[in-house]
Amino acid sequence: MIDIKFLRENPDVVKENIKKKFQDRKLPMVDEVIEFDKERREILQKKEALQAEKNKISKEIGKLMGQGKKDEANEVKAKVAEISKEIPALEERGRVVDEEIKKRMMVIPNIIDPSVPIGKDDSENVEIQKYGEPVVPDFEVPYHTEIMESFDGIDMDAAGRVAGNGFYYLLGDIARLHSAVLSYGRDFMIDRGFTYVIPPYMIRSAVVNGVMSFDEMDSMMYKIEGEDLYLIGTSEHSMIGRFIDEIIPEQKLPITLTSYSPCFRKEKGAHGIEERGVYRIHQFEKQEMIVVCKPEESMDWYEKLWQNTVDFFRSLDVPVRTLECCSGDLADLKVKSCDVEAWSPRQKKYFEVGSCSNLGDAQARRLKIRVQGEDGEKYLANTLNNTCVAPPRMLIAFLENNLNADGTISIPVPLRPYMGGKEKLVPRKSCLEK
Q1: What is the model's pTM?
Q2: How many CB atoms lie within 10 A of CB 147?
């Protein structure tokens, strides 16, 4: 959400930003907000004038009564009563106007960074850089669930009977590998100076509305029936919500946190051959990064955050690339965002395994997260988030890139302490057998 003062003073900039995001349907909202904002200020001025007049003539009543001018005092009382009736009507209209402004401001997109490439959707995202050499082995790499099945490591049929499509059971070495990757991700981020946090897995609607756009909420969030609670789609939601209505002393910034949580997502519209298995699911786990910082430091932190993910995957011998998200692929609150994609030897292409976002002061404005400077002045914090690792999707990249010709899986050195010292996983049956 942008500053209404900025919109009032720079309507053309806001409209141009809307066009860059290919959301022309929202263009009329800018002028509507300006008109409602003008009416709101007029209401406030009129209310203040009426209140001042009421206070002024109320003082006359006592004087007139003291002078024995009862009739004149009653006339003044009648005027006060009239004014008293006008004020609530103005206040009610003010509430309606405020709601109309908020309704529009919540969907007018944040101002994107000038460096963001202009494009309609994710097909126009721009590759930044590749890390590691993508390898296609001289044997056919099976689908990831087939690899898992060779270790008796997955049961999606039973999960379907228990919970429906989009769920899974992980078992044995595959389940252990899943947990090992998360544990390694936790320690990787702690070693980089981030504080480890386990947050609430449910949040109230006030936090939901503060951390994400309405479109995201509709496509992602599961509502708890009969409660003002939602299951989190990522721990970023509850992590940023932790600071709602807080005034943070400037000397405490930056706040750098890494959080573990399960994540729950509706995944509306997910379909296609690459969407089966555990690629796009309703429940997964993730190690996240969160930063709350000064506005002037947010771009530096943005660069550090996505680099952390690249370094993490490279430490596990998985080739990756970074992809700059174009304007049309940015959620409304984001200033700038990039995806980290891992190499898939089976598909012979990269696929998304993490996303890094700078949200500027949008979340802080909605949640009233302020910073008190050394001079006593208050300003809005900037917030950022990034995925460190999110299995089981990350397992797809890991299994494909560490699969050997005999069906075994090599365990990179950093992961071995979390796997009981194992250097390889040996399948119960070869996934490469036809």
Answers
A1: 0.89
A2: 25
